[in-house]
Every structure is written in C-alpha cells, then in structure tokens.
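The material for today's practical consists of a large collection of protein records. Read left to right, the backbone structure tokens trace the chain's path through space. An example says more than a description, so a record of this kind follows:
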Amino acid sequence: MIVGIHHAAISTPDLERLKAFYCDLFGLEEVMRFGWEQGDELCDRIVGLDGSAAKFVYLRGANAHLELFEYAHPTPKPQHADWRVCDHGFTHICFEVTDIHAEFERLTAAGMRFQNDAPIDALGMLHVAYGYDPDGNIVELVQFPEQEQEQEQGTKGDSASLTSTPLHIQASSGGRAGGGRRAGGQ
C-alpha cells in the first residue's frame, strides 16, 4: 500500500547555502545530517554510482521532507542554465501558503527571484507564483482560495489543500525568516 509522498531530493553544489534558503525562508527544520566517503559499497549500491562520496541534510516541513545532497564524487554535471519547467526531469517543488501575497513580498525582499511581478490568480481556483532557489531550481507557491474562506468562516469543507496544518514562519534577526512550526505547537 502506498501511503503518500515522503520526500523530494535536490543535488546542489553548496549544501549549506541551499539548506539556509529552505530553512530560513520556508521554515523547514533539519532533522538529520549524514555523509559518506568513497569506498562505501552500501551507499554506492543505494545511489547506483561507483565510488560515490556525498553529504546530505534531511529537512522536515509540516507535511513532507526534503533531502539536499552535495556530491564530491563523481563530479556532478551542473543544471543547464536554460532549463525550463517543461524540460524532462524534476520540474519544481511546491509550498502551500495561506497568504501568497505576503509570502511573495517576504521572499522577494529576502532576494528570491520570481518569474512574474506578482502572484497569478488562476481563474479563482488558486493563486500561484513560480520563483527560483539559489541553485536555479523552480519553487512554486500556491494558495487555495477556499482554504482562506474556510479559515475566515471557521468551517472545514472540501478543499484542494493538502494540509490544514500550515507552516508558521516567524521573522528572526537580520530580517531573515525561520522557526518553522506546525499549528498546535507540534
């Protein structure tokens, strides 16, 4: 039985920079750190590479996990500079938000680049914005309007929202955001 999506993974040339981006700006928290040197046969079998060496961090959000890998060997190929969301392979990671305009402003002020000047209203079904992490991976923000209405009315109906447990991002010193929390203090 498939339970659901557990995590996505991104390979990066700068593990600490990408970890800071997802932890500081999206409220994910580091829950594990691991690495291996060349000659680790088990890790080579798992990742399907010969002579691999890497380090990674495992991040947790409210309803999913994200793994970030930095490989030392074999030498990784950089992502094509003109890579587009329609090209084959990993296309984007999406974060559900409760106030897309506020998050768009906060992330823009923190230096995140977006494809548009503002979130897009997709025919009233959702609001969406596509931007980029420091490695050029596409990051989507999505807000489902019915979730906002349910919160205002104190009701719970059928929603396209995957979670009723939003991340609460709190600004920390230096104007950067961090401190991801689940509703109810979990």
Summary: The chain has a mean pLDDT of 80. The longest helix spans residues 15-26. The chain is about 20% helix and 30% strand. Residues 42 and 48 are 10 Å apart (CA to CA).
